[in-house]
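Possible regression after last week's pipeline update?

I re-ran a chain I had predicted before the update to compare outputs. Posting the input and the new output here so someone can diff against the archived version. Not blocking, just want to make sure nothing changed silently.
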Amino acid sequence: MKKIIAAFDGLKYSQATTDYAIQCATDSNAHLVGVFLDDMTHHTYKLYDVVHIEAGNLEKKIERYRQEEVDLRKDATEKFEISCRNACLNHSIHHDRNIALHDIIHESVYADMLVISGKETFTAFEEQLPTRFIKYLLTHLECPLMVVPEKYRQIKKVVFLFDGEPSSVYAIKMFSYLFPNWGDIPVEVVTVKEADESMHLPDGRLMKEFLKRHYPQAVYTVIKGLPDIEIVNHVKNRNQDELIVLGAYQRGKVSRLFKPSMVDVLMQDISLPLFIVKDRRL
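New output (post-update):
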């Protein structure tokens, strides 16, 4: 049995994260762990909310905020628990109370995959996507990462981004190992090539020979142009029930297609879940 972890800010609970994690855990016969990152340095209130309050009321107002936070975190845990029970899913809950980034990276060492909302900041502020928290995860996480949008839609199709580099193939391998029951799901392999290159798939014979053993009905799409533009255009206005699989950067070795900005562009311009794998061999 695999182990999937879903990370939550209990002060801003994401039901979509729960729903995506439940679909993945159910379809892969995995144990789902809800990791609630109850970082005690993270609060709903901002400093300027209280600095202008008279000294006699300051302590009372902070205590009220903190009680509200306790209630929010309790409510978030209960919502996750109810969702898992309704799905008849094998699950458990962790409450990590240290620095959120350190805790989730530590948890990822002992997990097969992490599911998290792309909007998570673990601060009282909103940030442009991808947030600093997600960027840090991309370079330090110890397992594959699924970044999900705010609204859940059942995954019914998978798009593999492939540029012939080992990192993109490694991402496809990891996905197929985690979800062996998705062998019949529609799969599209998308490659973007420069204007002066041929329309042939990179390592086409080997790639098709490999993928046929996992997804025999896969279709292949080769597009000419700039990856940052063409990939977004290709998936932007289609059904919102697709999952995009791609390799990520590691230690400065960057594939021609899947450089760090590729993840940034996808998170900024489309509202689809992303399955991202950092190839630690590089």
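Follow-up from reviewer: compared with the archived run. The first helix runs from residue 15 to 27. Marking as no regression found.
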